[in-house]
Amino acid sequence: MIDPIVAKIESLKRERNAVLLVHNYQMGEVQDIADHLGDSLGLSQVAARTDADVIVFCGVYFMAETAAILNPEKKVLLPDRYAGCPLADMITVEQLCEMKEKHPDAVVVCYVNSSAEIKAESDYCCTSANAEAVVNSIDSGRDIIFVPDKYLGGYTAGQTGRELILWQGYCPTHARISPKAIERLKQEHPAALVMAHPECPPSVLKIADEVLSTSGMCRVAAESDAVEFIVATEVGMLHRLKKENPLKEFYPAARNAVCKNMKMINLEKILWSLEDMAPEITVPAEIREQALTAIQRMVDIH
Ligand code: SF4
Fold first, then answer.
1. Which CATH architecture has domain 88-171?
2. Can you tell me the distance from the alpha carbon of 127 to that of 177, in angstroms, rounded to the nearest whole number?
3. Ligand 1 and 221: CB distance under 6 A
4. Which DSSP letter does residue 186 get?
5. Residue 87 near ligand 1, beta carbon < 6 Å
6. Quick one: which H or E segment has residue 268?
7. Residue among 87, 110, 199 to mutate when testing ligand 1 (max atoms within 8 A of CB)
8. Phi, psi for residue 231 in degrees, rounded to 5
9. Is any ligand 1 atom within 6 A of the Cβ of residue 261?
10. Per residue in 160-187, pLDDT tens?
């Protein structure tokens, strides 16, 4: 029997012509009712082309803000407006402007995990799925400032052979993942393939078999001959991996790699959000216009 809350959500979605975009780190009950489940890049691409009137974004604040920038004429709802991202909060516009003053000729690339104001001060935006392609698309003679994630930035620098000027931010959830724990798991499951997200510290990336965005993890889990995987990213990812590959085994590299912000949205909050058409996320026109070029490049380059 269909859960009565889910039934109400479905009915309100039809009434409002709403689409439910859900990030891979959300709770299982939220992932299970997604119209589109994905990573920041995939969900931004869906947000850019949807013909729904309302986007209910089950993720964190910067994701809903990005959808609002891409869709000024649509209503973008974030079922809990306090679902933030500590990584995004690690840099202020003033700090970025100071960096730009120190390196006046540099191109600025910001990871999508950043505020709309930071995106407005950036030339390019990227996700973990296309950071390499974005950096490679920039003239090799130009200096590049990369904010705010030093780990994704460091990894991208290694992959592209470019020297990036890094801001020292990091994701506190991925920082909990240690190489020691992975080595221990490897002893228990020697045939397991280690998949790590580039937000992990370099010591983790060094021992990973594959460094992948969450969409990349889904692809590799489905295509690989391996039947066991050690997954070094936020634990919400395991719900989707297991659901899509029921005959394979997935082990979290760190059980405490839980992003509390990603777990703030539940079915009740989605229902209330559709009932009240709130909380709505909006971006001031001036910031939106300035941020749009960087975001559009992110959506287009892959
Ligand atoms: Fe931000 Fe890390 Fe949570 Fe992602 S997992 S929303 S980067 S704190």
1. 3-Layer(aba) Sandwich (3.40)
2. 20
3. no
4. H
5. yes
6. helix 267-276
7. 87
8. -110, 110
9. yes
10. 999 999 999 999 999 999 999 999 999 9
